[in-house]
Amino acid sequence: MTKPKKRLLVVGDRVLVKVEDGEQRTKVGLYLPPSAIDSQAVQGGDIVSTGPGLAMPDLTDQGDEPWRIGGSNREARYVPMQARVGDFALFFRKAAVEITFENEQYLVVPQAAILALVRDTAREDIPEY
Q: Of all helices (H) and strands (E), which one includes residue 89?
């Protein structure tokens, strides 16, 4: 019997980014080792997973204690994420938290730290700007 693989779930308004290892190339074609890149404030990587978004309060039944969760059949509602799996994200490096999961290196980045997204325009469900 094989042991089932674990799944990594991202919570809240965060994304899981896989950063390419190895050397980075500058605009003029020079290759820089990772130690030379550590001083940069912005980093990029491919988004491999996203959280559900920022949780929204249910305003239908506030009563005297709006923080209290009533009823067990209430579904959570979220402000949707702009980032999607497959996007390339440029983000503030200092906001990222590095984790290792099943011998793979990832960065967990809050959506607020993402500066720009590069998305495949072939997908029809995305408005162009």
A: strand 88-92
3-state helix, strand and coil shares in percent for the chain, rounded to the nearest 5: 10, 35, 55
Question: Within 13 Å of residue 27, how many CA atoms lie on the same side as its CB?
Answer: 0
Block residue for tokens 């999607």: 84
- Do the Cβ atoms of 74 and 42 come closer than 8 Å? no
> Quick one: pLDDT band at residue 107, thresholds 50, 70, 90?
very high
Global pTM exceeds 0.85: no
Asked if 50 and 72 count as a contact pair (C-beta separation under 8 A), the reply is no
Strands 114-118 and 24-25: unpaired
